[in-house]
Specification:
single chain; mainly alpha
Length: 143
């Protein structure tokens, strides 16, 4: 549909609405509005794949790192290496580092979850706004 055709249609529809509200008794003839063919499946151009992929990558990398982080007993490791002496202080230090690394890993998991939740909320809001705009401007959409 060309701009001129669309403009004439919109003008005719506006005249009909005005007439039905008690305005001009003889509305100009024109095409009747119809439902938009894309009303149910609007493509808003929202690409959630990259965000979901990033969040998934964060979770995967974090799970791999957790699996590789296994130093729990410095004394036992020290006994395997000639000339290395380790004691309870080393175990305490290793334990503290392990706890801190696990806390950081939990933060990474939380960040990936928050990223996904935030994206879902934003896309949901964008779709709701698009639906409201479409409903408000349905008269001007292509037939």
């Amino acid at each position: 549909m060309t701009f001129d055709e669309e403009w004439l249609r919109a003008k005719g529809e506006a005249t009909m609405r005005h007439a039905s509200a008690g305005g001009n008794p003889s509305p100009a003839p024109g095409p009747q509005p119809g439902p938009s063919p894309s009303a149910d499946a609007a493509d808003l151009g929202l690409a959630d794949g990259p965000v979901r992929s990033s969040a998934s990558g964060l979770r995967t990398a974090n799970a791999d790192a957790r699996g590789k982080s296994t130093l729990d007993d410095a004394e036992a490791v020290g006994g395997l290496h000639a000339g290395w002496t380790a004691g309870p202080a080393s175990d305490d230090c290793v334990g503290a580092w392990q706890r801190r690394l696990r806390e950081l890993a939990d933060l990474v998991d939380d960040a990936a979850d928050a990223l996904t939740r935030g994206m879902n909320v934003t896309i949901g809001e964008d779709r709701a706004i698009a639906d409201r705009l479409r409903a408000a401007g349905g008269v001007l959409e292509d037939v």
